[in-house]
């Protein structure tokens, strides 16, 4: 009923911004589990990518691998990095400690998520701030690498976000992004990327690798939902989390939705 009533508003930018803020504020406030640090669907590396197995094995291995293989696309060591949409901060903490950038800033629209990330991650070269992807509170030409993981589908204006990415990047800086769309929306995203003023360096369809990650992590994810989420919300949360059998999972399997990885340069 509620979903039907809200459906007509989904095309409006203001609704997308409000919906994202309410959702992620609520999640960080009501499910503040320290060991639930990643919110992406995960990535299973292909045969051509160097094998990587972090030790000790993390609870959310495949979401961590999404960050590892995205972060591996460019040099991060001694660089100034901004992640837009850093969520609970697990990816930021991993990249900041593993690749050792000079400074890593995680930025999120949800203040509760920022507070939680600052609480659970103590990495010297890492900080989290509140801010909007469409009005990044940083100076022009100040960032070497901007990272965006499974986030910009929820923005009111992706075009404005890309304009902000270009503004804050230093000349020669990189934009690393992974996200999903339905087929038509993915074509629209590619048009926006082409018109952003950034140069496309790599474009890769990683849908199959995301599906494999969802399948590999499903048992553990389902258990975490049972352990952390109140029973009346578990079915809804399972859909949100993209477990095997969810609409999101089925869409990836049947080719209705696609998941891409992009590397762009200013």
Keywords:
Rossmann fold; 10 helices; 7 strands; 43% helix; globular
Molecular structure report:
- The structure is a single chain.
- Helix 2 (13-30) packs parallel to helix 5 (111-120).
- This protein has one domain (2-265): Rossmann fold, CATH 3.40.50.
- It has ten helices and seven strands.
- The radius of gyration is 17 Å and the shape is globular.
- It has a seven-stranded mixed sheet.
- It has helices at residues 2-6, 13-30, 61-71, 90-98, 111-120, 158-168, 183-194, 207-228, 234-241, 247-254, and strands at 80-84, 103-108, 126-130, 143-149, 169-182, 199-205, 257-265.
- Helices cover 43% and strands 20% of the residues.
- By secondary structure, the protein is an alpha/beta fold.
- Residues 1-21 have low confidence and may be disordered.
Summarize the structure.
With 266 residues, the chain is of the alpha/beta class.
Helix content: 40-55%
Label the CATH architecture: 3-Layer(aba) Sandwich
How many distinct beta strands? 7
- Total count of domains: 1
Order of helices and strands: HHHEHEHEEHEHEHHHE
Weakly predicted, low-confidence segments: 1-21
- CATH H-level superfamily title: Vaccinia Virus protein VP39
Structural class computed from helices and strand pairing: alpha/beta
- Measured distance between first and last alpha carbons: 45 Å
- Give the overall shape: globular
Arithmetic mean of pLDDT: 88
Query: Order of strands in the sheet with the most strands?
Result: 3-2-1-4-5-7-6
- Residue fraction in strands: 15-25%
Main pleated sheet: 7 strands, mixed
Which CATH class is shown?
Alpha Beta
Our count of helices gives 10
User: CATH topology, which one?
Assistant: Rossmann fold
Task: Tell me the Rg in angstroms.
Answer: 17 Å
């Amino acid at each position: 009923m509620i979903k039907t009533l809200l459906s007509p508003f989904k095309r409006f930018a203001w609704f997308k911004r409000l919906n994202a803020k309410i959702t992620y504020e609520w999640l960080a406030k009501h499910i503040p589990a320290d060991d639930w640090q990643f919110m992406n669907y995960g990535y299973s590396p292909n045969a051509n990518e160097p094998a990587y197995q972090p030790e000790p094995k993390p609870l959310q291995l495949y979401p961590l691998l999404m960050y590892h293989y995205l972060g591996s696309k460019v040099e991060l060591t001694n660089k100034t990095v901004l992640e837009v949409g850093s969520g609970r901060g697990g990816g930021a903490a991993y990249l900041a400690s593993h690749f050792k950038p000079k400074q890593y800033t995680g930025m999120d629209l949800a203040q509760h998520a920022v507070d939680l990330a600052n609480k659970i991650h103590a990495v010297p070269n890492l900080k989290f701030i509140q801010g909007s992807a469409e009005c990044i509170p940083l100076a022009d030409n100040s960032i070497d690498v901007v990272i965006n993981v499974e986030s910009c589908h929820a923005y009111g204006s992706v075009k404005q976000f890309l304009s902000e990415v270009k503004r804050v990047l230093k000349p020669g800086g990189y934009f690393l992004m992974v996200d999903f769309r339905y087929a038509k929306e993915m074509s629209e995203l590619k048009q926006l990327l082409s018109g952003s003023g950034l140069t496309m360096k790599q474009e890769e369809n990683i849908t199959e690798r995301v599906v494999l990650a969802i399948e590999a992590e499903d048992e553990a994810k389902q258990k975490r939902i049972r352990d952390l989420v109140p029973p009346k919300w578990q079915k809804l949360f399972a859909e949100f989390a993209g477990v095997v059998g969810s609409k999101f999972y089925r869409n990836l399997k049947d080719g209705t939705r696609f998941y891409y990885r992009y590397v762009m340069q200013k």
